[in-house]
Write a structure and sequence with these properties.
The complex is a heterotetramer, with 2 copies of chain A and 2 copies of chain B. Chain A is α/β, with parallel strands linked by helices. Chain A has helices at about 70-80, 115-120, 165-175, 190-200, and strands at about 1-15, 20-25, 35-40, 50-55, 55-60, 60-70, 85-90, 105-110, 125-135, 150-155, 160, 180-185, 205-210, 225, 235, 245. Chain B has one domain (about 5-55, about 75-195, about 215-295): Aldolase class I (TIM Barrel). In chain B, about 30% of the residues lie in helices and about 20% in strands. The longest helix of chain B is centred in the last third of the chain and has 15 residues, at about 270-285. Classes of the chains: A alpha/beta, B alpha/beta. The structure holds flavin-adenine dinucleotide (2 copies), flavin mononucleotide (2 copies) and FE2/S2 (inorganic) cluster (2 copies).
Chain lengths: ~250, ~300, ~300, ~250
């Protein structure tokens, strides 16, 4: 892990508030596990703390992140242009454990796709992807991703299943045997809650990538915790013990 | 090469730069980036007699040119710290300052007692910003008489030098410093975070109430050091908004013997080693023999 | 068009935005840029019974994301203000809040007496950060009992509503707010500048000790408003680090009935008219009928 | 007076720490009196307050200032480049009163030349200029200025009189009759003190442009005062009652 200077290659608006940022790094990142993230300095001098983003893609000295404009930090980031300098601290945290199972199910909602993109790329031949978004347009976020099976839900029904991705997932769940299945998920808190509920009786092993506000990204400040069922020390650092947790061990 | 070493409670520290408590985890987390022994001393996360869970999230919130935290003092307890982490510092032969707190006077005393003297533990830093649950949650560090008595009791319970870390949210910080001195404090750390709050206007709700840290604090810290130094003759460790070596210069010139870097590490994980390097370079370039010559240089 | 008007001490102000005392001169200086009646009310520079020279320079110093001032309360005195500037506000039919101070209790009382009731003077804002020279220079606003007594005496000397403007450099600002309320204060202004100091490392000297203002103050102000609003039932005027309309939203949601803009005007001389404009636009765009609906919206 | 958007045309390093900044204004400035100044926003987001600079030159929508790098603000300014946006508030303060006298003497030291440049341009046919600087190189600061007489001093003696400009001025003072003379000056506090001393018995009328730290530049904050001999209100605002004062009325 290292703090690496970087320059923006492109900062492209994909659709609505979603952007893809490609960075040229001064040095390579080191081994990246899907699900790991970086702390990115926001170019310009208006944003104080760095912001965490999943490593969307990575090859030698080019790294990309996909992000959604949410508040002041991501807004400032969306205004950065080619050639702007920044710093990239990473790779950080514990990524997904890819076990050797017949079925790899990936459930993602909205910008959550950014957190599982690298994972899907890695397991593409076996990936059954459930992706939920607002409307057809957001399907552009799936980009060039190759995968075995793709199930799409849109809130407005403009493409695929009409409704949320968990409801869609429920309709398919019986096809998968819990013992042969590994579920991976990334998305808003509500989606993860729904997923837990959906899997309650099925009990397939499930790893989820969770988000929390961060200050350091390095395990220094204990600012980014997620409550777990561990009795001795319930609050675990998302940046250090996470961001990928066992769904059955965290409180949602 | 200018001499960066300073003497604190009869220990030579190789340089006057430490981390601020709670901003460098348990000391091991930063190792992939730089060696903790780069610093003159390591200050522990705030430790208590028993482990503490801490607060629910959000625990950190950005404000203009600073942040607010409400970690709620999550820690594994003083016993587990000694068991799990002290060997790491022993192996490095690294001086440690133990930051500790309690929610009652007795918890402070018991905690201090449980910290057995150790050649590497050069001081106990008492976090006086902690709420006193027996006094309705008002923090220990606000009432001079309470501070004097608490420190007096802690001093009777340990042979390790005691450093009182003061909150800036007081009428007159020099009065508190004097009470700490009268209670027997061997040094002061100035200052802890400044209480503040933040609203999320989209959600129309308070998002966090906690302690503000970062550059906004610096003028408040400099004033505190200036006023306390005039009042009490014990060494002062400065903290509050230090981002670079130039900030350090202000703290030394105001009268600090050593300084602590907190929030800066979140902005730049290499802030501490950079500050140490730049400080040495500055002294060399400007013909200072030792960092000691800077201390109090602005207080004539 | 959303309604920006607010009621303060039975006066309808056309909007809830004022300047902070001491940051818009005597009111006439800004006229080449925008009309002072753009605001809901004008707050005077701090006035005293007799004219005051103020401090030598430097009087202002930039700090990260803020500034420190040490003007030292230069003013022409309350009498000269009424003679030289009140006609200007009369001509504009502009509500005025008179900010005043004294270095002794008697000076406050005498000053309040000299401000004869006038249809445009909607409040007397007492600057309680002023040093009490009879009490060794400690500021009036730190000791609850002293605050209660002083305000009680001022209230007996005037029929104009009295607003207590509090310093944040206290143990517990809600205690002071309560004392002000018990003394009879009709409202509070929260907060005054936060004391700080600054060193010029090149000159190796303290450059300024004074009051910090600007964005750094905002979390401290929001916390103060939150805590005082829970304690006392009188209207609060918010101040401290407001730079734009979004900052205002935080202040209203925390419980302020009106707000004051200070340092922002130095950064952008049109900050105040912009805030008023943007606030209206925001309410319209988000379907709020009145700014009043925002007040305390985050305090459930 | 107005707050005007502006874009940098050039930001040229003249010599050592001295720069000439040319700005294209979105609107013209209004009538400028020599000695007036502007409050300039420093491009970028690291400097909080604006900084005061004399209007060095001005024509229609192009305004220039000459500045010396002193601290964080001017350092940040020196890093600004062509096309950067800024804001210009002005013209501010009271400039020089140009009386109809046979002799117009201008005394300037170092960057003080920036404060009297427009004045000299205006009265060039009658301007007797005394300019003091560190060495020959700094004479570049005189630029293209036309004037009747030019007397130069350098501290290192590399050009003209060796020593400070006031000592040079003293050598010439007897040539000027107090009644026929108007002195204008701008330079460091020490120079103004020396000037006062030099003119003590001569008593020519003298206007000086003084500097003080400013917050608002508009007379709002009373931060920028200069002590005068006025007993009722000794501290006068440099930005409002100044920056040009009668030498005989201020405390130096
Ligand atoms: C491990 C990890 C990986 C992430 N990966 C991505 C990614 O690949 N792409 C992406 O767009 N976003 C990702 N996020 C979320 C991203 O960090 C936040 O959206 C961003 O920090 C918001 O910053 P802001 O300044 O724009 O928002 P702020 O102004 O700080 O806040 C705006 C809103 O964003 C929410 N928010 C702020 N910080 C976080 C956070 N850390 N996690 C969740 N919500 C937050 C707030 O609750 C608020 O509602 C990730 C977060 C984590 C912890
Ligand atoms: C009416 C007026 C006109 C001016 N015209 C010019 C000009 O044409 N060209 C030019 O280069 N400078 C001019 N100045 C001075 C210029 O404003 C300061 O040099 C500048 O503000 C310094 O900012 P800084 O951030 O670089 O320095 P800081 O970091 O703020 O301070 C660095 C040093 O500069 C000194 N300083 C800071 N502000 C001032 C100030 N306002 N006046 C004097 N010294 C100051 C400080 O004492 C300190 O030693 C003028 C000042 C005034 C009041
Ligand atoms: C995340 C965080 C946790 C902190 N935890 C503690 C603590 O446990 N004990 C303590 O005395 N101070 C604690 N502090 C205060 C810092 O030690 C320091 O006094 C303060 O942050 C000011 O310094 P800075 O501006 O350099 O951060 C904490 C600060 C932060 C930001
Ligand atoms: C230059 C200056 C002068 C001030 N003078 C006074 C004053 O005379 N009386 C007073 O009560 N407050 C005074 N204040 C405090 C402001 O009114 C205000 O409370 C404070 O600056 C916080 O608001 P801000 O951050 O918007 O500036 C002054 C502030 C500044 C910056
Ligand atoms: S962000 Fe600091 S511990 Fe995770
Ligand atoms: S700078 Fe504010 S009054 Fe002159």
């Amino acid at each position: 892990m290292d703090d690496i200077e970087a320059k923006i290659i492109t900062n492209r608006n994909i659709v609505k508030d979603y952007f893809l940022l490609r960075l040229r790094l001064a040095r390579p990142l080191g081994t990246v596990v899907p699900g790991q993230f970086v702390m990115l300095k926001i170019p310009g001098n208006t944003v104080f703390l760095r912001r965490p983003f999943s490593i969307y893609d990575y090859k030698r000295d080019v790294m990309s992140i996909m992000y959604k404009v949410k508040g002041s930090g991501t807004l400032a980031l969306s205004n950065a242009v080619k050639g702007d300098s920044t710093m990239v601290l990473g790779p950080l945290g514990r990524g997904f454990n890819i076990y050797n199972k017949p079925n790899h199910i990936v459930v993602a909602g909205g910008i959550g796709i950014a957190g599982v993109h690298l994972l899907i790329k890695k397991i593409k031949a076996n990936a059954h992807v459930f992706y939920g978004c607002t409307d057809e347009k957001e399907l552009l976020l799936l980009n060039d991703l190759k995968m075995q099976d793709k199930y799409i839900s849109t809130i407005d029904g403009s493409y695929g299943y009409k409704g949320n991705v968990i409801d869609l997932f429920r309709t398919r769940l019986k096809d998968y045997n819990a013992r042969d299945t590994q579920v991976y998920a990334c998305g808003p808190e509500g989606m993860l809650k729904g997923l837990k509920h959906a899997l309650e009786s099925h009990r397939a092993p499930c790893q989820v990538l969770v988000e929390e506000r961060m200050a350091c990204g390095l395990g220094l400040c204990f600012g980014c915790v997620k409550k777990t069922l561990d009795e001795k020390e319930p609050y675990k650092r998302v940046c250090k013990e996470g961001p990928v947790f066992n769904l059955w061990q965290i409180c949602l | 090469m200018a001499d960066l070493s300073v003497n604190l409670f009869h220990n030579m520290l190789k340089n006057p730069v430490m981390n601020a408590s709670g901003t460098l985890g348990y000391g091991v987390e930063i190792e992939p980036l730089w060696k903790v022994e780069t610093m003159g001393a390591y200050v522990t996360k705030g430790l208590s007699l028993m482990p503490h869970q801490g607060n629910p999230t959000p625990r950190v919130w950005e404000v203009r040119w600073g942040m607010i935290n409400s970690i709620g003092l999550q820690n594994i307890g003083v016993e587990a710290f000694f068991r799990d982490y002290m060997p790491f510092f022993e192996q490095k032969n690294m001086p440690v300052i133990v930051n500790f707190f309690g929610f009652t006077e007795d918890e402070y005393i018991q905690c201090a007692k449980n910290i057995v003297p150790h050649r590497l533990i050069i001081g106990l830093e008492m976090n006086l910003s902690c709420p006193n649950i027996k006094a309705g949650g008002i923090s220990f560090g606000k009432e001079p008489e309470a501070v004097r008595r608490l420190i007096d009791r802690v001093k009777s319970s340990t042979n390790i030098p005691v450093i009182a870390k003061l909150t800036p949210e007081v009428d007159n910080i020099a009065d508190i410093a004097q009470a700490a001195y009268e209670g027997g404090a061997d040094g002061l750390t100035l200052i802890n975070t400044l209480p503040g709050a933040c609203i999320d206007t989209h959600e129309r709700a308070f998002k966090i109430r906690g302690g503000m840290s970062g550059p906004s604090l610096k003028p408040v810290a400099i004033k505190a050091i200036y006023e306390c130094r005039k009042r009490v003759p014990i060494p002062i460790i400065g903290a509050g908004g230090i981002m670079d070596y130039e900030d350090c210069l202000s703290f030394f010139m105001a009268g600090a013997t050593a300084i602590q870097v907190g929030t800066a590490t979140f902005v730049d994980p290499f802030a501490i080693p950079k500050i140490i390097q730049d400080l040495g370079d500055f002294l060399d370039k400007n013909g200072w023999d030792s960092v000691i010559d800077l201390i109090g240089a602005a207080c004539t």
